[in-house]
């Protein structure tokens, strides 16, 4: 255990979601944020660290151990390849990871050739309620898990101005509900119940102001007999003061009971045959994004680099998530179950 290693971290991207990454690194005990690169220099400067417009210049002047890439998929491959060529050996890349499975495979190949550890910043599995639910499943709290359901209800998708105040590029994404958002639960369901064997999807676009799909269902058949359902609709909301905390409600049903995730980040348990439920978990943090999952993932990366612990989200493994995503879109286009 090496307690006092301080990693030098630089960020690319200081937009809406970049703020959560920057905040995380600025309060990380064993890491120091040494630079921010963004096309808007004043925005980058507002965080109080060295700011740059050119990535190569930032890497040369700050010599980071870790580069955290927080840019949309259309910009990722150029940024990643430049980082590889400049000698950065650990790179974190925000999801959605690349524009396609083919591009992601090529980026992974190039990272391996350059000797780069490439990690996808897929943070939902690091939300505290899902970590708790995983521990409860491992302890057999609800018996044999048979069904998982996520009802995505962020309530932000109606009308011509949907998403414009936060992430306007959402409107132009040809693949939206699954590629941008539902991919979180592809990974989370894998984290909780292993890889699925097959998927069936029925996706649709409800808002004519956007290009991609914004509602639909996906059913996952897992190898251990678990069936999972992702029920997504960005027009509808759920009971929560902050619609973006959990982005919906989830249920995990087993032979001995049910775990229910509610919109305030709490988890409730009801035993089989019981008419009562009781709270078994409550998220304690209000800082950061969605239970401070960005900080939790970044802390996980620091522990991997400083203490030699294994990484959960290496890009080479994350390709499986993108393969499942491709199968989902194929299923909805062909109207049939796709085996993986």
List the helices and strands and how they pair.
Layout: E1 7-12, H1 18-26, E2 31-37, H2 41-45, E3 51-52, H3 55-62, E4 66-69, H4 73-85, E5 90-94, H5 101-113, E6 117-121, H6 128-138, E7 145-152, H7 177-193, E8 196-204, E9 215-222, E10 227-233, E11 248-254, E12 257-261, E13 266-271, E14 278-282, H8 293-307, H9 315-334, E15 338-339
Parallel strand pairs: 1-2, 1-4, 2-3, 4-5, 5-6, 7-10
Antiparallel strand pairs: 7-11, 8-9, 8-15, 9-10, 11-12, 12-13, 13-14
Description:
There is one protein chain. The radius of gyration is 20 Å and the shape is globular. The chain has a nine-stranded mixed β-sheet. A six-stranded parallel β-sheet has the order 3-2-1-4-5-6, sandwiched between helices. Helix 5 packs antiparallel against helix 9 and helix 7 packs across helix 9. It is an alpha/beta fold and 340 residues long. The model has no long low-confidence stretch (mean pLDDT 94). It folds into two domains: 115 residues, Rossmann fold (3-Layer(aba) Sandwich), CATH 3.40.50; 180 residues, Dihydrodipicolinate Reductase, domain 2, CATH 3.30.360.10. It is 33% helix and 25% strand.
Biggest β-sheet: strands ordered side by side in the sheet:
14-13-12-11-7-10-9-8-15
Instruction: Outline the low-pLDDT stretches.
Output: none
Per CATH, the superfamily of the largest domain is: Dihydrodipicolinate Reductase, domain 2
Q: What about the largest sheet? A: 9 strands, mixed
Number of domains: 2
Broad shape: globular
String of helices and strands: EHEHEHEHEHEHEHEEEEEEEHHE
Radius of gyration: 20 Å
The CATH topology label of the largest domain is Dihydrodipicolinate Reductase, domain 2
């Amino acid at each position: 255990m090496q307690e006092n290693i301080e990693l030098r971290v630089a960020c690319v991207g200081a937009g809406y979601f970049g703020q959560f990454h920057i905040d995380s690194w600025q309060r990380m005990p064993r890491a120091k944020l040494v630079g921010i690169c963004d096309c808007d220099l004043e925005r980058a400067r507002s965080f109080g660290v060295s700011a740059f417009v050119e990535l190569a210049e930032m890497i040369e002047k700050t010599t980071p151990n870790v580069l955290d890439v927080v840019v949309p998929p259309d910009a990722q491959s150029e940024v990643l390849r430049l980082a590889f060529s400049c000698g950065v050996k650990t790179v974190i890349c925000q999801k959605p990871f690349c524009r396609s499975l083919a591009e992601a495979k090529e980026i992974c190949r190039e990272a391996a050739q350059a000797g780069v550890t490439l990690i996808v910043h897929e943070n939902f599995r690091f939300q505290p309620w899902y970590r708790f639910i995983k521990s409860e499943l491992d302890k057999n709290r609800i018996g044999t898990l048979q069904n998982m359901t996520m009802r995505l209800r962020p309530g932000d998708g109606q009308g011509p101005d949907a998403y414009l105040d936060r992430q306007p590029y959402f409107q132009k994404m040809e693949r939206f509900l699954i590629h941008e958002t539902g991919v979180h639960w592809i990974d989370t369901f894998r984290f909780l119940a292993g890889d699925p064997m097959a998927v069936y999807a029925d996706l649709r676009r409800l808002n004519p102001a956007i290009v991609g799909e914004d509602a639909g269902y996906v059913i996952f058949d897992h190898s251990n007999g678990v069936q999972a359902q992702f029920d997504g609709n960005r027009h509808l909301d759920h009971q929560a003061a902050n619609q973006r905390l959990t982005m919906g409600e989830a249920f995990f049903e087993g032979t001995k009971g049910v775990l229910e995730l509610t919109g305030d980040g709490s988890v409730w348990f009801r035993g089989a045959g019981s008419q009562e439920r009781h709270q078994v978990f409550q998220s304690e943090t209000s800082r950061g994004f969605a239970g401070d999952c960005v900080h939790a993932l970044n802390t996980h990366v620091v522990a991997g680099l400083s203490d030699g612990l294994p990484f959960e989200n290496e890009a080479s493994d994350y390709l499986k998530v993108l393969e499942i995503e491709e199968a989902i879109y194929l299923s909805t286009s062909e109207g049939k179950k796709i085996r993986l």
